[in-house]
Amino acid sequence: MLSGNILTPEGWIHGDLSFENGRITSIVGNAADPANNDAPYILPGFIDLHVHGGGGADVMESGDAIETIARTHARYGTTSLLATTMTAPRDELMSVVAALGDVTRLRTPGGARVLGVHLEGPYINPGKLGAQPDAAVSAVLDEVLKYLSIAPIRVVTVAPEIAGHIDIISEIAARGVRVQLGHSLATYDEGVAALKHGARGFTHLFNAMSPLHHRNPGLVGAALAHAEYAEIIPDLLHVHPGAIRAAMRAIPRLYVVTDSTSATGMPDGEYRLGSQHVTKCLGGVRLSDGTLAGSTLTMDQALRNLVSLGFPVADVSARLSRYAADYLGIEDRGRLARGAWADIVVFDREFALTATYVEGESIVEYA
Which residues are part of a known binding site for substrate? Predict the structure, then answer.
């Protein structure tokens, strides 16, 4: 049983939360304002839909690397995640996705639940690669359907302006896959058209996409004007706090991702991001030319960053958990409610992470 300020879908409860066999069995107590007591914060476990690596391991290595990544992120409060690929030649990427399909069937003890795969590339614009390798291709439906058949692909990032991609967006969205727009030079109108054809989100908003200008709104403008969901990386390197504030006001269910790399949870040095070498230093990860290449952000630090900007804990929590679950259509994660998975994080009054439970299992190792 856990006691403290419990954030439920209905609001804060000061009381007790119990769980058994991996599920929440009861929440009892009274409505309360956490500002009026010194009890810890008990929040839904974090859901990260954009994870490239952690603990020195990279998703593109597949195999045992996923276990390392799942355990690393659980130490920082992530209770479920999407293993996110990098752009790579077809045969290599197909092999990696097949291996990911195998590892998503069981949860690693001591690790976060891998909910499936986020295919970030290869269907992106070669003129907006960001830190993606130069192996972008146009989507072909038979190939996309092959990926979907060998692994639980939950999210696909697509550049909508590439010829044929609007039809691809419609096809895969109709199959329940969440299509995100990103790594793109799309105009505002192309972005809006993609939303009308089934795209639902935007990959790491502001980064690697056509920017907002008042006479040429770009893909950022399409997101701010029309999106219900979008990712954002609040490491305070990828996006200025002012831009975060604008996005929080404009996009109702803006949700947090880390875009984390193998350097996450590791000391400064050289690491791998897909086929590329990156350097961790000064709190970030970069290619040799200085381009930001993912991050070392963890979800507990993302919470602290957003709270430090003045956002309420309850709002921040929703952006770290419930909105991502809602986006994927998952009803029993991302919220503390009877019958939901016991995915739980506990923070002290200074927002230090003190406990994590993944499906009721206590994760005891902390950084």
Answer: 131, 207-208, 215, 238, 292-294
With beta carbons less than 8 A apart as the criterion, state whether 122 and 156 touch: no
What span, in angstroms and rounded, lies between the C-alpha atoms of 227 and 199? 10
* Cα–Cα distance for residue pair 332/341, rounded to 1 Å: 6
Number of domains composing the chain: 1
Q: Which domain, by its residues, includes 230?
A: 2-363
CATH code of 139's domain: 3.20.20.140
Q: Residues at the annotated binding site?
A: 120, 131, 183, 204, 207-208, 215, 238, 292-294
Q: What is the full per-residue pLDDT of the chain (367 aa) written as tens digits?
A: 999 999 999 999 999 999 999 999 999 999 999 999 999 999 999 999 999 999 999 999 977 899 999 999 999 999 999 999 999 999 999 999 999 998 888 899 999 999 999 999 899 999 999 999 999 999 999 999 999 999 999 999 999 999 999 999 999 999 999 999 999 999 999 999 999 999 999 999 999 999 999 999 999 999 999 999 999 999 999 999 999 999 999 999 999 999 999 999 999 999 989 988 899 988 899 998 889 889 999 999 999 999 999 999 999 999 999 999 999 999 999 999 999 999 999 999 999 999 999 999 999 754 4
* Catalytic annotation, pick one of 235, 259, 300, 343: 259
> Cβ distance 247 to 240 under 8 Å?
no
Query: What type of residue is 281?
Result: C
CA distance 228 to 327: 9
Residue 167 is among the residues annotated as catalytic for this protein? no
